[in-house]
């Protein structure tokens, strides 16, 4: 909350409505200034006033914060992060440039003859490995897993990725950022809404935190598109794994050992 209030104080100061300290403390000065913002409903709870101000400020700066309704959602979160970046660095965040991700061509292209030659038949050549940190099963968080079943040819690489993730983020951040929310690996099924077999059928794809990275969501909604996950993606990409989110801006939950 403190960071949100800081952003709001900064926005109010820019409007000439606030002369107090940018300290993230919601005092009477901050409240008085908020109530003077055109369009602000004085009867709203303070939390919603703060959210409303962030939405107004974001819109004025050209970020799409969705409806100005004082309700915090993924769109507001996205706009808020853009505002934080702008206030911190004095410029807008670099746009998304998927072409700057250099494919390593370590893994064969999905559905290509090379893919079938390399990985063989669906649902074969599987191995169950013990992963470096415990996973929570995303569709039923009461269940935990320390083992993942995947293709033998990706097992070593997968473990290396997850070890790096654990070393970089540590157990607490892994929990906070939901990097342990596991949505599945091997699953012999067709692609969602498609007629081709999913790379999950070979055990060369994994899903993480599906609830906050839904199939059709783009980078303005998907949790994994936020900068705090840059290291997470670096770990995968250093091993040549491909994020559909990073490359195609959909299915941000999904990462695979296959080019697209
Ligand atoms: Zn997937």
From TrEMBL:
InterPro entries: Zn_M74/Hedgehog-like (IPR009045). It comes from the Bacteria. This is Peptidase M15C domain-containing protein. It comes from Cyclobacterium amurskyense.
């Amino acid at each position: 909350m403190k960071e949100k209030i800081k952003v709001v104080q900064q926005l109010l100061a820019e409007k000439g409505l606030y002369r107090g300290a940018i300290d993230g403390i919601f005092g009477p000065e901050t409240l008085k200034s908020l109530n003077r913002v055109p369009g602000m409903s004085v009867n709203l709870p303070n939390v919603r006033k703060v959210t409303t101000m962030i939405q107004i400020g974001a819109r004025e700066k050209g970020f799409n914060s969705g409806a100005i309704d004082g309700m915090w959602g993924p769109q507001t979160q996205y706009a808020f992060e853009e505002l934080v970046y702008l206030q911190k660095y004095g410029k807008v965040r670099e746009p998304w440039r998927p072409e700057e991700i250099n494919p390593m061509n370590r893994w064969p292209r999905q559905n290509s003859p090379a893919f079938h030659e390399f990985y063989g038949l669906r649902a074969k050549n599987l191995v169950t490995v013990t992963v470096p940190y415990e996973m929570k099963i995303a569709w039923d968080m009461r269940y935990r897993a320390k083992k993942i079943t995947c293709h033998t040819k990706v097992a070593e690489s997968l473990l290396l990725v997850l070890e790096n993730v654990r070393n970089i983020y540590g157990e607490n951040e892994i929990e906070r950022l939901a990097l342990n929310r596991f949505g599945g690996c091997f699953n012999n099924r067709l692609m969602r809404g498609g007629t081709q077999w999913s790379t999950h059928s070979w055990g060369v794809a994994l899903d993480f935190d599906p609830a906050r990275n839904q199939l059709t969501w783009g980078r303005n909604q998907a949790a994994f598109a936020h900068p705090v996950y840059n290291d997470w993606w670096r770990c995968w990409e250093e091993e040549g794994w491909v994020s559909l989110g990073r490359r195609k801006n959909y299915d941000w939950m999904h990462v695979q050992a296959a080019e697209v």
